[in-house]
Structure formats: structure tokens, C-alpha cells
């Protein structure tokens, strides 16, 4: 994978009062390069419970490659590629949800808990071009896996 047609990748998850923050952080780190900085923001739920929002923005090409390599381990990466028309919006952003519990166990699987948003490079900045670029990089990732 020579070039990476993504400006950045945002990963975000919530740690609820019933969860262990270190474990939730570990799940998020499943997709991040080693020792990558995670931002924390504390919020309050509807019933006054504490919610910690953990997030990271990956911008360097090598770091984005790392995230994409982790995505290549998805069992249904082919299905994700088929859904790209629905997963890329008019602002050239690619969206995917990942299973927080599986990530904590060291596996990559689609599900609930971790939100991935990636800004796809597209010149001109049109949705169709972004879908084409995202498909191309996911095909490369799949081939390298």
C-alpha cells in the first residue's frame, strides 16, 4: 500500500460507569499504533452517571496504515467494501462501527461500541471519487492481509 487516501481517521468510544476504563481504553488501542495518545473527556449521563469519552485522531500516513491493517482482519471486509456507497457520505467521510467487546479480546469485528470515521481524500471532492479511493485502499489492505 504505497499511498493512503485518507486525511485522518477518528476513533471514539464511551466508557460507562459500569465499565472498567482501562479495559475500554485497551479495546480502543486495538486499532491504534503503539503508545498513541488518547484524549479523555468526562461527561454526565441522563441519570447523572459518569461517562468518559475516549477518542483519538490518527493523521500520519504510517499511523493510518496501521489502523487500516487492523481493519483488514475483519471477517467481512468484502461486505464492508460492497457497502461503501452507503458508508461514505457527501462530505467524503467513511463510517464504520466496531465491536468494543471483540476489540478488548484482541479481535476485529463489526458491531457496537467503537465508532470509526475517516476522511477520504478525493480530488475533486465528490462522493463517487471518495468511494472509489476507499474501495481501492480496502482492496490493497485485503490483498496484503
Automatic annotation (TrEMBL):
Pfam families membership: RNA_binding
InterPro entries on file: PAB1135-like, Ribosomal_uL5_dom_sf
SUPFAM superfamilies: RL5-like
PANTHER family xref list: EXOSOME SUBUNIT, EXOSOME SUBUNIT, DUF54 FAMILY-RELATED
Name this protein carries in UniProt: RNA-binding protein
Organism: Halobium palmae
Amino acid at each position: 500500500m504505497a499511498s493512503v487516501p485518507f486525511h485522518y481517521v477518528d476513533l471514539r468510544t464511551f466508557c460507562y460507569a459500569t465499565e472498567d476504563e482501562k479495559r475500554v481504553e485497551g479495546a480502543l488501542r486495538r486499532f491504534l499504533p503503539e503508545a498513541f495518545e488518547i484524549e479523555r473527556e468526562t461527561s454526565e449521563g441522563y441519570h447523572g452517571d459518569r461517562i468518559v469519552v475516549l477518542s483519538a485522531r490518527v493523521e500520519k500516513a504510517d499511523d493510518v496504515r496501521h489502523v487500516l491493517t487492523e481493519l483488514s482482519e475483519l471477517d467481512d471486509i468484502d461486505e464492508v467494501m460492497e457497502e461503501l456507497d452507503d458508508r461514505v457520505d457527501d462530505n467524503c467521510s467513511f463510517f464504520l462501527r466496531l465491536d468494543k467487546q471483540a476489540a478488548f479480546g484482541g479481535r476485529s469485528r463489526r458491531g457496537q461500541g467503537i465508532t470509526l470515521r475517516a476522511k477520504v481524500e478525493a480530488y475533486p471532492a465528490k462522493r463517487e471519487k471518495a468511494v472509489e479511493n476507499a474501495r481501492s485502499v480496502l482492496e490493497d489492505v485485503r490483498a496484503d492481509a
